[in-house]
Amino acid sequence: MSRSDEVEARAEGWRTLAALQARIEDEIERALQERHGLSVNEFCLLHYLAEPGGRHTRMQQLAARLVLSQSATTRLVSRLEKRGLVTRVLSEEDRRGIYAEATEAGRALEAAATPTHNAALDEAMTKAAAVPELTPLVQALASLTNLKVEPRDTAAAG
Predict the structure, then answer these.
(1) Is residue 100 a contact partner of residue 87, using CB atoms and an 8 Å limit?
(2) How do residues 57-70 score in pLDDT, each as one tens digit?
(3) Strand order across the 98-102 sheet
(4) Does domain 3-149 have CATH number 1.10.1670.10?
(5) In a designed cystine with 111, which of 2, 118, 120, 154 is the match (CB 3.0 to 4.6 A)?
(6) Around Cβ 145, how many Cβ atoms within 10 Å?
């Protein structure tokens, strides 16, 4: 295989992976919007903040975790803050850093949306498995154990 063939094969693989990612995200986005009024990024932010290690998270850490710019993360937190799902807290250590925290309502919405997320993920993977060029990627993803979001006990999380 020549170098240009290798490059083209890698590019084709990337395009196929991007197509699968877009299908999955689109399915999850539709389900979350329809049932919970959340975008994928909003759900991901709430999910991260609802994790035991994410309860009190600097904005820069959220941006890195969500793979968003700091300005996009700020806008995302602002939208959720207006809905009463997230609050911002000034750092007591240095008085400069700003942390984001999920409110009780935010944790409850995340818990309610988790089964929807997982069902939409299953549906997207099932549909994608029927597309021959996506089947090998779907099989590879199916072997990952951490693909689904684990439901949380909101009473213990509060």
Answers:
(1) yes
(2) 889 999 999 999 99
(3) 57-58, 98-102, 86-90
(4) no
(5) 154
(6) 6
